[in-house]
Design brief:
about 30% strand, two-stranded antiparallel sheet, about 5% helix
Length: about 140
């Protein structure tokens, strides 16, 4: 008995969901604080992927809990869970690679521009996948590392 073939759905799903341009890159070193802007800047790393994609919030009720323990570097840092969606043809992002949104589609959320996310785990894989899903955590200024 043949299995379920979803390859015909791939272009349809990509055209409906992967509307923005994203970049996955390796970190080239520790972030450097820019006193003029009050933000951290990251040295340019190797670009692993640049192309169609989407970043979506994956918030749940427990996702906003503070990190416990006073011995941790940022005890009040919250987890900002997001998902990166890319084509199956895109390379699998390795843990700790960086994700940025380069452009958003017309009607998209421009608040995605200028943010950075860190890959939490390699992308999920499955037998019946039509797009690659990668879990992210947003990098906030107080927790840049």
């Amino acid at each position: 008995m043949p299995g379920l073939d979803l390859s015909g759905l791939v272009p349809v799903i990509e055209d409906l969901v992967l509307l923005d341009t994203v970049r996955i890159s390796t970190p080239a070193g520790a972030p450097v604080f820019d006193p003029a802007t009050g933000t951290y800047t990251y040295p340019a790393g190797e670009v692993v992927y640049e192309g169609r994609g989407a970043v979506q919030s994956a918030m749940s009720v427990d996702a906003a809990a503070s990190t416990p323990g006073s011995s941790l570097p940022w005890p009040t840092e919250t987890r900002s869970r997001y998902r990166l969606l890319t084509p199956l043809s895109a390379p699998t992002a390795a843990k700790d690679t960086l994700v940025t949104v380069l452009s958003v589609h017309a009607g998209g959320d421009p608040a995605l521009l200028g943010r950075r996310w860190r890959v939490q785990d390699p992308a999920a894989s499955g037998t019946l996948g039509v797009i690659r899903v990668t879990l992210l955590d947003q990098i906030t200024e107080s927790g840049a590392s």
